[in-house]
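Re: beginner question about structure tokens

> Can someone show what the tokenized structure looks like for a real chain? I only ever see the sequence side.

Sure, here's an example I had lying around. Input first:
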Amino acid sequence: ELVFEDCEVGEDALLGGKEGAFGALMEALITGRVSHGVKSAAIAEAALEQAIAYATDREAFGRSLTKFQSIRFKLATMATKVAAAKALAYKAAWLYETGQPCVKEASMAKYFSAEVADEVTREAVQIHGGYGYITEYPVERMYRDAKLASITEGTSEIQQLIISKELGL
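And the corresponding structure tokens:
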């Protein structure tokens, strides 16, 4: 155990300077939210790819699962949401990398991509049926990872609060 009592630190040794630690913390959170947005979009995309591959190979009633309209519609919806999540995450990353303000966009990317990852991985597990829950198929892990993404670096509800504040509400 290490304890400092009556210890003084010069301003030059303070994180972010005098009264600047909060700004440094906020910058770190923006970085994390952008990266979580990209990561969640990637998880969703990987789950979509796994679902397409499984549905293409798996046969039911003598034909591929992709021949069933309900599966095709489900995959189309998943693909559309993945594309939207990627676009939002890439925009936030671009704004961040070019040094532009992106508090709102970082929170939007983190929030939306995490929600999409949760939904797409859940649907991928559903398409896999009972196999979706066993460790031999990667969608089981993706499903768990997607759930965690909506909690870390600020929950979806926290992201909604930040977004609404940035909208001036």
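Each token stands for a local structural state, so reading them left to right follows the chain. The chain has a mean pLDDT of 94.
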